[in-house]
Amino acid sequence: MLRIPDKAGPRAAKAAGSRAPGTPPRSTEKPLRSVGRKQVLGWKEAVVLTTLGGIQLLAKLDTGARTSALHAVDIIYIKHRSAIWVEFDLPDIDQSRRHRFCLPLAEHRSVKSSIGTSQIRPVIVLELSMAGQAWSTEVTLTDRSDMELPMLIGRSALKGRFVVDPARTRLAGHGAALPVQHPVQKKPKSTTRKK
Prior knowledge:
The protein is mainly β. Helix content is 6%, strand content 46%. The chain has a single domain, classed as Cathepsin D, subunit A, domain 1 (Beta Barrel). The protein is built from two helices and 14 strands, in the order αββββββββββββαββ. The strands form three sheets. Strands 3-4-12-5-11-10 form a six-stranded mixed beta barrel. It has a four-stranded antiparallel beta sheet with strand order 8-7-6-14, with no helix packed on it. It has a three-stranded mixed beta sheet with strand order 1-2-13, with no helix packed on it. Mean pLDDT is 81; it is low at 1-16, 23-29 and 176-186.
């Protein structure tokens, strides 16, 4: 059993030097840049959504969430031949402009929110680029207008690539925080529309 002493011993007093009582010692270590082969990132990082024409935005890296989520509004489904596509708007941070996209629906998934309610969400596959790495991952679409950041990157997208330092932000660099201009996405001609 570990016993924590009530008073600091002589070594702790010497290490404290001229610090005020109760002040933690200063760390002289440099922040970690990698753990093994995994790069260390902060809880907030710039990400490029390659599939969506190179839009850059800030995302929350959340190891407590399994699935990634992207802010999307005005979601509709379009049947194209034998496939179902998802059409949605991705608003700019300041809501001044919306970008319309249409991508194949991968599936529907039940996701439990941070407040404990379950929601059935459409799932799409996006190509992400962050911290010099690019990969495809499944992303759910949902209204995140009440959240600070438009995207959440969950542990299934981070696994095997990154370690998250919850005390730091933007360790991968200072990419753009707002969506940028991108080419217009062509959508398939719809044969049936359903909401």
